[in-house]
Each structure stands twice: as C-alpha cells, then as structure tokens.
Write a structure and sequence with these properties.
Radius of gyration: 23 Å
Shape: elongated
Number of helices: 12
Helix content: 40-55%
Number of domains: 2
Structural class: alpha/beta
CATH architecture of the largest domain: 3-Layer(aba) Sandwich
Largest sheet: 8 strands, mixed
Length: 286
C-alpha cells in the first residue's frame, strides 16, 4: 500500500467522500477529474491540490490507482477513455464505487492490463456536505467484488490501510446486494413518508425511536432474537386487524404488510405451533 498515487474521477458526493477520507489518511492524491471543471476545482481546492481537470487524458502518468466515482451509466465510458489514455496500465489498479454494477464495467481497463474491482460503501450519502467535511466511514462496511485474486487482495489491503471494515461478495450476488440495500435504505424513507402523510409530522419522531430501538436489538441480540410483534406472538386477530386497516388506507401498504409477513414466517421457524403457523400463512397469502 506504499507509494499510492490516486486519481479521483468524479467530484460528486461519493468521490468527494473518498477524496477527503484519503486525505485524512495522508494518501497521495495526484488529480481530481470531473466533466464539470468547477466541481473538480472545488474539490481540489478542499484537498489543497493543484491538479484538477475535466479531461481523463490529462491524468498524470504516475497515477497507479483510479477511483471511479461517477454515475453508473458513465462507468464504461470512463473505463474506455482511461484504457485509451494510458500507454501502460500494467501494475495499476482501478475500482468503481457502484453498488449495483460489477467489475465487468471496467473490462476495457482489464483488457489493457489494469487490475480492477468494485468497492462499494454501503452508506447513505443524502444531504452530505462536500466541502471541508469528512464522511465518517468508520462504521461503514465496503463490499469488494472482483474475479481477480490480486484485485481482491489489493482491495482488502486498501481497506485495512484505511481502517475500513469490508465484506467480499461474488459477482452474481451484486444485484441482490444492491436491491436489498434499496429496500432497507431508500424504502425506509418511503415508509417514513407514509407515516408523515397519514399520522402527521410529529409521528415521525415516534417511529424513528421505534426504528432505532429495533436496530439496537439487532446489534445486541442478533437478527433472529430481535423480532417482536404480532406475527412472532402468533397473534392472528391483530394480524387480521392490521391488514383490514391497511386495506382501507392503501392497497399497496396492505400488500407490503402481507409480503413481509410471509418472509417473517420464514424467520420465526418453529417458534409457533403448526396450527397457528398455518393460519398465519393462509391470512398473509390470500
């Protein structure tokens, strides 16, 4: 991990977060690249870095790690431009930060001799200020994905150097990894919108405390021991009342309740007697 020379490609929220975290660890950044030169300059200024550009071809040849933090639809284009701009990519590394796409997006770089992987911070970047403020990655877990053993080892060493936690996922797990992140993070916000819409803004705090206590239970007791509520109690009457109330309010919420209820039955296993379990299956499935 010594003698890293890093180019940050993409000066948005994610790229800025990586750049500022690297600066905090005193990792050498040689260039900031963004198609919007003003954004590139702004991030470079916060890093006290002289070199910024809107052209990938202007990245210094000494760069040996490319961090590609652009929107998903631009990753392949960046990979192609990098492969065309550098005469020798052997011994260099590149990763993109997408949660949905795999390292296959960097195939042009790979074919040119660069070692590639994806490294995704499982973190919500909404409303993050970019200037002069570090994103706290201390509790973030980074997902590493690559077909290359060399790339995976480099990614692991990189995370250890940055003191970041990590997990390794297979290429075929990446779409599911991202979909579950969307359900957990994005759709949690959607649920709070429904709470605010139907119960008012003051109710948000109440449900936020509920969510935080649930998270604490998972942390303290593990997933299987954290579950509470009518399904695990086998409270058939309450489940029926919940479904009826949601049917009158919003059919989509009713469907969500029933769908997650079925998934919850898988979680509780043999904690209920067979008769109650079957009754709940019938109610939640019809």
């Amino acid at each position: 991990m010594k003698n890293l020379s890093v180019a940050i490609i993409g000066a948005g929220r994610v790229g800025s977060a990586f750049a500022l975290a690297l600066k905090k660890r005193k990792v050498r950044i040689v260039s900031v690249v963004d198609k919007n030169l003003i954004k590139a300059k702004k991030l470079a200024s916060s890093l006290k870095l002289d070199h910024f550009t809107s052209e990938i071809s202007n990245i210094p040849e000494e760069t040996n790690l490319f961090i590609i933090a652009v929107q998903d639809r631009f990753i392949k284009k960046v990979s192609s431009k990098l492969s065309q701009s550098f005469q020798d990519l052997k011994g260099k590394f590149a990763f993109h930060t997408s949660g949905a796409l795999t390292s296959e997006e960097l195939s042009d770089l790979k074919n040119s001799g660069c070692t590639v992987f994806s490294l995704h911070p499982n973190f919500s970047f909404a409303s993050v200020k970019r200037e002069n403020k570090f994103i706290n990655f201390d509790k973030c877990v980074f997902a590493i994905e690559s077909d290359s053993k060399i790339a995976k080892k480099f990614a692991i060493d990189f995370c250890k150097m940055m003191d970041w936690d990590y997990l390794i996922i297979n290429k075929n797990q990446k779409p599911v990894y991202h979909a579950l992140a969307v359900i957990l993070s994005n759709y949690t916000v959607t649920q709070f919108y429904q709470i605010e819409k139907h119960l008012g803004k003051k109710a948000v705090k109440s449900y936020l405390n509920l969510l935080l206590s649930t998270i604490q239970n998972i942390q303290n007791s593990g997933v299987k021991n954290a579950l509470t509520g009518p399904v695990i109690r086998g409270d058939v009457e309450t489940v029926i009342k919940n479904i009826q109330s949601l049917r009158n309010l919003n059919s989509e919420l009713k469907t969500i309740y029933k769908s997650f209820g079925i998934l919850t039955l898988e979680l509780i296993g043999d904690k209920l007697d067979k008769k109650t379990l079957q009754k709940l299956k019938q109610i939640l499935s019809k």
